[in-house]
Specification:
Layout (H helix, E strand, L loop, with lengths): L2 H7 L1 H30 L2 E9 L5 E8 L5 E5 L4 E8 L5 E3 L7 H6 L6 E3 L5 E2 L3 E4 L2 E4 L8 E2 L12 E7 L2 E10 L10 E10 L3 E10 L3 E2 L3 E3 L16 E4 L3 E3 L12 E2 L11 E2 L9 H6 L3 E5 L8 E7 L5 E7 L3 E5 L8 E2 L5 E2 L6 E5 L14 E2 L5 E11 L1
Antiparallel strand pairs: 1-2, 2-3, 3-4, 4-5, 6-16, 7-10, 8-9, 11-12, 12-13, 13-14, 14-29, 15-28, 17-20, 17-22, 18-19, 18-21, 21-24, 22-23, 23-29, 24-27, 25-26
Bound molecules: beta-D-glucopyranose (BGC).
Length: 393
């Protein structure tokens, strides 16, 4: 081979090498730029979400964290309208049930994404006695009171202000529930602050004060489907609940007052178990609840923030972990969803297309002296925290 030819042959791979190195450098640079862009994406946007039939303007806040997770929260019911989190391939999906517009929420809402109060869950016959006075609350679930009554906190418009932190974006919602509302005593000033952190957590901080002794049990009522909203039932999700006991109920879903061990029953989620594995077992408690609709007694000593539940969805790889300062968690397997609701993006919500994990004090505590107290007195501050942490594996 002549020298000339050699010279002609060798520069080609050399050039190629230089080109490859240049490409690598550029792609690294653009990667860096991309991650800077992503970081810069952490934002809070405010927009109108329409008006209630009685003329209240509703706002929608879109929170985006530095990893691109997105929570949309509206002031009607302090409601999570959507929650986009990544699957194991990094693909975002909306994992909460709900409606595309306000109208859906106003017309027919089984508490999708809402804050429920003044008392989340049931109070038997809507009645309780506090300091010698008997209070009769609105009854809206047969003879019982459920989730704050006929017009609970899920159906009122909250005030809102954006919250900016170094590693989180959020919105603080406030509401004044007047003395006598739905039958409850005391003017109750309450707030719920949602923050979306750069650790991929949706954090809820609840606070309240009253001017008269009252009862309070605030919780959050998102229906989750980690495969994506409207994408099938939740029976294949694997659930762990950090609880050795639950509070058994009667056929009106009111706790009997006992604490029962989960051992050897379909209520045992101390180790991860598919929600559908035992849901149709011949077990009286499941008959009463028409599936799971019970409060679990969390394994904990006091009010420390502890892991309450973990849910894993095998197809998407999405994982939800719930941490709370509360003593209990209601696991509701969407038993009353029956295909009559068409939700976001035209998706029909069939039986058990979503589940709720509502951190709370136990149901009917105002009538159960052996349950942790839900009484709030003037001068005391009600303060609880619940964290929803998202990841994928
Ligand atoms: C309750 C269910 C109820 C549902 C309403 C849940 O928190 O436990 O019994 O039907 O809310 O959507």
């Amino acid at each position: 081979m002549s020298k000339r030819k050699m010279l002609f042959v060798f520069p080609m791979p050399a050039l190629l090498l230089v080109a490859i190195m240049l490409c690598l450098c550029c792609s690294q640079l653009s990667c860096k730029r991309k991650s800077m862009e992503v970081k810069a994406k952490m934002s809070i946007q405010e927009q109108s979400f329409g008006q209630t039939p009685d003329g209240h303007k509703v706002k929608l806040y879109t929170l985006t964290n530095s990893n691109g997770l997105k929570a949309r929260i509206m002031t009607y019911g302090a409601t999570v309208v959507s929650l986009e989190v990544p699957d194991r391939n990094g693909k975002l999906g909306d994992i909460t049930l709900g409606y595309d517009d306000l109208d859906g929420y106003v017309k027919n809402n089984p508490y999708f994404g809402a804050i429920v109060g003044r008392y989340g869950n049931r109070i038997a016959k809507g009645r309780f006695t506090l300091d010698g006075t008997t209070y009769q609350l609105a009854t809206n679930n047969g003879e019982n009171h459920l989730h704050g009554g006929i017009k609970g906190f899920d159906k009122v418009v909250w005030d809102a202000e954006p919250v900016k932190q170094k590693d989180a974006v959020g919105v603080k919602l406030t509401y004044l529930s007047k003395d006598g509302e739905e039958g409850y005593p005391g003017n109750l000033k309450c707030s719920v602050t949602y923050t979306l952190t750069n650790d991929d957590e949706l954090k809820l901080n609840y606070e309240a004060e009253t001017d008269k002794a009252t009862v309070i049990n605030l919780t959050h009522h998102s229906y989750f489907n980690l495969a994506g909203q409207g994408k099938g039932d939740i029976l294949g999700h694997e659930l762990m609940i950090n609880a050795d006991k639950f509070t058994p109920i009667d056929n009106g879903l009111i706790p009997t007052g006992q604490l029962q061990t989960v051992k050897g029953t379909p209520m045992d989620f101390t180790k991860p178990c598919a929600i559908g594995a035992h849901i149709n077992d011949d077990f009286e408690q499941l008959k009463f609840g028409l599936g799971y609709d019970h409060n679990w007694v969390l394994n904990k000593k006091g009010q420390e923030l502890t892991l309450a539940a973990r849910v894993y969805e095998p197809n998407s790889g999405r994982v939800l972990e719930i941490y709370t300062t509360e003593p209990g968690i209601q696991f509701y397997s969407g038993n009353f969803l029956d295909g009559t609701i068409t939700g976001k993006q035209g998706k029909v919500y069939e039986h058990r297309y979503g589940f709720c994990l509502e951190t709370q004090h136990y149901p009917d505590s105002p009538n159960k002296p052996n349950f942790p107290s839900t009484i709030l007195r003037p001068g005391q501050i009600y303060q609880t925290t619940t964290i929803h942490k998202f990841s994928a594996k």
